Batch of 2 targets.
Target 1
Amino acid sequence: MGGTARVSMMLILLAAITFIATLFATETKGRSLLD
Amino acid sequence: MVIMALGTFVVGCLPTYQQIGVWAPILLVILRLIQGIGLRGEWGGASLMVIEHAPPGRRGLFGSLVQIGFPLGLVTSSGVFALVTMMPEADFKLWGWRIPFLLSILLLGVGWFVRARVPETPIFEEIKRRGAISRNPFVEVILKNPRSFLVAVGLKISEVSWVYILTIFIVVYATSQLNLPRTLVLNAIFVAALVEVITIPFFGWLSDHIGRRIFYFLGTLFTACFAFPPFWLLSTKDPQIIILTVVVALSFGHGTMFGYSRPIFPNCSARACATAAHRLAFSSPQPWEEGFRLSSRLRWPATWAAPPGYR
């Protein structure tokens, strides 16, 4: 497997960042772009 | 658009390593960075134009139609390179590889024609009528809306890295470390891109009915759970498993968060702020991506993706 484990760990870390960002994101379905 | 088209065109005009030595790869890296800046600048604007013209309740679907340019681009570039590689290998290495890059100048004309005929969006006209256009959106979004900006960038990080691991790193890893045929892996990406032409609008359509955030949550969970399995599945060296792996990974780790990314970006008090956050979020990862693409090629023994003159 070699160096791919580090790549996989990086992907998990970046997914965690996006997950956290999603927690702070506003649901925009049905909202006006002018809000 | 001009930056992107000219940057690609000039790659086709570059002298080779044999002609100018180390300056050849240096110039190639610089041009790739320029392409990245041009691509993201245009991409953000195109997404905004489509979404702001979209009917109410269909922004996800319409926004996703812009994003299928990515898989379509993969399919088209693969097809063009497949055609030019049909010529004698010596001719391909000598000058044939330049043809796809030189053809990109045609896109400049098409893009310019379209751009000149697209009217400003109703939303922008409304903002202008209200006198709410920001005079300096870049500074405004950084200083007055740092949270929105950081959220917008954070939303992009996972899918951006995921797609380049799948389309760049895995190809180099599979060919150089697992000794898999290059055509098998490239065909897997080709099939996955074709499937994504359907799945991206599908997820965009779903986001109009179910919501946007849920797919970001599901996409990140999929990415986290599927971070190790692709490498295990590649090592089986079974063609069907490899193709299925890339198809599933690209559609669920990328398509779920990619197709309608613009509509979920948080709105700022002024539309110009949202525009700037969106464009910055798209722009900021691109030079990093291009650097990653090139470093992947340089680090691993295989140099399949570099033009022959730079191998």
Target 2
Amino acid sequence: MIFQDAVEFRASSFVPRVCIVGSGPAGISIALKLAAARVPCVILEAGADEWTEDSQDVYRGEVIGDHYFDLDMTRLRYFGGSSNHWAGWCRVLDRHDFEPKAYVEHTGWPIGRGDIDPFLDETREVLDLAPFQPDRAVSNDFRWFEMRKSQPVRFREKYAAPLAESQMIALVLNTQVDELVGDGTAVTAAKIRSRGAEAGELVAPFFVVATGGLENSRLLLWSNERSNGGVVPHATALARYWMEHPMFEVGSGFVTNVDAMGFDHEGDAFFTPTVEAMAAREVLNFHVQIESMPYHGVRKFIAETACLVPETTEWVSETLGLKLQCSARLHMAWEQPPREHNRVALSTTERDAAGIPRIELHWRKDDLDRRTMLEGIRMFGEEFARKDLGRMRISDWVRDGGDWPEDMEIAGNHHMGGTRMGENLATSVVDRNCKVHGMANLYVAGSSVFATGGQCTPTTTITALALRLGNHLGRVAGSMTVTKV
Amino acid sequence: MRQHDSRLKRRTFLAALLALPAVALLHRIVRPTGSADIVEVDGWILKRDDVEGDRA
């Protein structure tokens, strides 16, 4: 069932056992699992079934620290959420991404990859993915891996009809949660606003916050403030340890063994280090993307490098002359260390149309980011040469510790952390089941629960974790007797 | 034969670039690496054989 606002929904007399806030990949994936378990649920979507300026305006905010995207550009606020501009690149976090790294504080999850493996087949069904190709070792230190570039699933397009037909799922558009109300042990209600006007309270036995990797923190911060700590009773880590995947073009090179590259249909090849290689240089996870360039690109590349470092370029070109097959740009994306000071905060001066404080995102890369980038590309370059795959050159700004460029990719639009999963109440917000510490009926879904980010795009893992949460809630909510609330 | 021709073109192209006076002023910066078989020169990561083959 799809309702256009809260008035329509109330007229239906639908009684949900679970209230899901947000209709992005996480929210819809949970609803699908609940429906399969015959647990009625309502999804509250703040936006409409299409983009509107007024709705998107709620996402405006300020970034303090490193250069980052405008906060109303890096996510979308309507049915389907940010799946509406998702690129479709897929990969699941690796087994070792869940393990602690002794040399980086606050790493390690309370669950392992084995906890989400049972949900990967369903994840592929949700995201329309064929099975992934296995990784392939290219050396002792690096593996080639498939970054699946899928036709991105727009959740609004794929699931509008199934949701409309479902008798177990009620999607309510144009309806936001202004705040959750809690007593320190459970959420007792959600104060909602529909079509811009206050629309009373909605009560349900369980609540799931699935509004995205920035907004989850904002909603919980604001709710907790309004409830005097009654929504997140252990809030030391709330909205902290926020992470991205910094992404930059870090060099260029010649490929001399194209056959070994495993370029995909767009001419890209992806490599990631082994856990032993990361530990040896005390860096976090990363991937190197080799973007091949066509022949005219080779000439341009030679011209550019010849201007910059003529002797070396001549020398390399001469040395590799007979084997030179193509040139390449080198891109890197890496895992950030979880830092308490990287956080979402509520603005003290700016509020949205509903009077709720806007986001102030405090985000700064640090020495370990720079070390991961530089040592990572050096490590890869050495293996690249050693295996005679080609030769590469690290850009000057990377080697010289120059300012972070503002005219490159910058980051992946991957908003992680803020309600991270863990067992320590001081450094995490949710437990292994994504339940907020100390709360009986409040759960969080999405990449905000990531304890660390790994090197890969998050949507596949988000979906798998959401299906796992949906499975858990299906059991918990399905076993209880509910009277109309 | 075709491969040989393209190599000549590249060398011609490089020769023209290197004839520009401004670009000949740069110096190579050599950085040792942790591995005996690898060197880093002006940011290029090369096998030592690359260097010794042409320069030693």
